[in-house]
Prior knowledge:
This protein is an alpha/beta fold. It has eleven helices and twelve strands. It has helices at residues 3-26, 35-39, 42-54, 65-73, 85-93, 125-134, 147-158, 176-186, 194-198, 235-245, 248-256; strands at 28-34, 57-63, 79-82, 97-113, 139-141, 169-171, 189-193, 206-210, 217-225, 258-259, 262-263, 266-267.
Amino acid sequence: MTFKTSLTRRALVCAVLASASVWAQAQSIVMSSTTSTEQSGLFAHLLPAFKKASGLDVKVVALGTGQALDMARRGDADVVFVHDQAAEEKFVADGFGIKRLPVMYNDFVLIGPKADPAATKGKDIVAALAKLSAGNAAFVSRGDKSGTHAAELRFWKTANLTDKKGSGYKECGCGMGPALNIAASTGAYVLADRATWLNFKNRADLAILVEGDNRLFNQYGVMVVNPAKHAHVKQADAQKFVDWITSAAGQGVIADYKIGGEQLFFPNAGK
Length: 271
């Protein structure tokens, strides 16, 4: 083999490797999503089924909904999967998302010590918050602009207690799992999505105290990031995820995800 031939072959190998790298990158999309979809275990169940159907990998960055939307605004995601409908609709109205589609729902629950020293147990979330405020009960707020945090703030506002949450109210600036861990270790109350609670192992003396209020409804939506804002967005591949998760096949996979026989999310695409 001549020196020139060796160089030619090396150049060919480098070109093939570079092409393979580009192809591999093209076979994945980035999704910014809420922590509840990750920490509930849903994505570990859902994404392998999507890859089998599409051949695409999904790289998930799990953040609070507000941060997930900010990430997409910067062009650092191809698709967004979150749960704050008002914020999602603004994201689309501002031109950052192409279209918002509903995917699934579950509900929020108020978690607290089984002994329930603030006597919150029942169905009315607003009445429960009033009792927490009056008793200055320990309450862990995520304080991270997540969908859960946004819902919590709506409930305080409905209760006319936005500035009267009590001296026991503390913001952790953290995800749902860490917030639950803090509540478990300190005997505090916390608002959680049911799915993350069901997948949470470190429950200590915590239990669901308030559930069933219609105001606790928790809707999830999905959006492709608009390539008109960021030309590098992989619109076609992101749309494949949106089309699949809102299809009968994707909706079926969501419905099949259960813990201890209990369904965590309820598909409602197209409704």
